[in-house]
Amino acid sequence: MAAHTLPTDLFCNYYRDWIVTYKEGAIRKVTMDKYLLTAAWIDRLVPDLPIKDLTRAAYQQLLNGYAEHHERQTTMDFHHQLKCAILDAVDEGLLERDPTRKAVIKGKPPRAKKPKYLNQFELHKLLDVLHLDHHVNWDWLILLIAKTGLRFSEALAVTPDDFNFSRQVLSVDKTWDYKENGGFLPTKNRSSIRKVQLDWQLIIQFAELIKGMPPSQPIFVKGKVYNSTVNAVLSRRCNEAGVPIITVHGLRHTHASLLLFAGVSVASVAKRLGHSSMTTTQKVYLHVIQELENQDVDLVMRSLSGLS
User: Fold this and answer.
1) CA 119 to CA 254: how far, in whole Å?
2) SS3 for 281?
3) What interhelical angle do 56-67 and 29-45 show, nearest 10?
4) Coil, helix or strand for 290?
5) Tens digit of pLDDT per residue, the chain (308 long)?
6) Contacts of 46 (CB under 8 A, 6+ apart)
7) Contacts of 223 (CB under 8 A, 6+ apart)
8) Quick check: helix, strand or coil at residue 122?
9) Which of these, 165, 121, 167, 126, lies nearest to 145 by C-alpha position?
10) 22 shares its domain with 148
11) Are 162 and 56 part of one and the same domain?
């Protein structure tokens, strides 16, 4: 933080200093970019607001201004990023009270949601139309993600050395920096380092596919990779199969949803996906879990009605 910050200093400057002091170097670049985007919106909405004038009313007006351009959930995220810095300002005596208290979160109506995942029948139709020839292409990446639930960056980082064909497992311990300059990066978190069990068919297919490839080089990366390129291939395959168009990340959702519907425990799904906790899995797949709970209630009622 800037030395001797005063209540008369601009809030936009305080927030940028706070990001540099408490966040820079401590969070991943993608998260840092979100904080910097929040700072840019503060510059735009309240460029001349001193810290001392950040009252409840002023803060609510700031939120309302942001909400005019964003959905409610995005506004909620904006609020959470600001609140951390503002509470520190209170602790430092720059503000007498917490202006974020009882803030009302507004936002534009959410856009119609695109399908996030396919059901089992739709996934079978998609896999049937993949162009799986004898050379590596994006269809092979689509197959790998569909059958393992890997994140896009994890799948890009897969090398021949990561396969243990005798044990039928794939080691996930790195990602590929496709958003910047390429190269290997650490996984999203420590829980993302894992071994994913593979089915025998995928083992046979990839054992043949990667023969003679450099053992420590990524299988799918040949120059600059764009997420949009792979999504475009997936969109074409979805159209060919006559199924809803989903994204590459939607393949991960599809994988997890099918496992949950098949009766695999939330704990096992969380471990396979590399989630840091079961809470993450439960939050992301709440709709699936609720549907399964409804099925469980029906099963309980049928069981009880059979008792004499």
Assistant:
1) 7
2) helix
3) 110
4) helix
5) 655 899 999 999 999 999 999 999 998 888 899 999 999 999 999 999 999 999 999 999 999 999 999 999 999 999 999 999 999 999 999 999 999 999 999 999 887 667 788 888 999 999 999 999 899 999 999 999 999 999 999 999 999 999 999 999 999 999 999 998 899 999 988 989 999 999 999 999 999 999 999 999 999 999 999 999 999 999 999 999 999 999 999 999 999 888 888 888 889 999 999 998 888 788 777 766 666 666 555 656 666 666 65
6) 11, 12, 58, 62, 65
7) none
8) helix
9) 126
10) no
11) no
**Domain range for residue 224?**
120-295
Instruction: Estimate the share of the chain in helix, then strand, then coil, as percent rounded to the nearest 5.
Output: 55, 5, 40
At a CB cut-off of 8 Å and minimum separation 6, what does 269 contact?
256, 259, 260, 281, 285
Residues 136, 58 within the same domain: no
The string of DSSP codes covering 52-97 is GG--HHHHHHHHHHHHTTSBHHHHHHHHHHHHHHHHHHHHTTS-SS
290 lies in the same domain as 142: yes
Cα 224 from Cα 190, distance rounded (Å): 27
- Interacting residues of 175 by C-beta distance below 8 A, sequence separation 6+: 151, 153, 154, 156, 157, 184, 185, 186, 187, 188
Asked if residue 113 belongs to a domain, the reply is no
Q: From CA 210, how far away is CA 115, in angstroms rounded?
A: 33
Rounded to an integer, what is the distance from CA 272 to the centroid of its chain?
A: 15
pTM reported for the whole predicted model: 0.67
CATH number at residue 196: 1.10.443.10
pLDDT of residue 188: 87
Pair (216, 167) in one structural domain: yes
CATH number for 22: 1.10.150.130
Q: Confirm if 77 and 33 have CB atoms less than 8 A apart.
A: no
Among 57, 77, 73, smallest CA distance to 107 is for 73
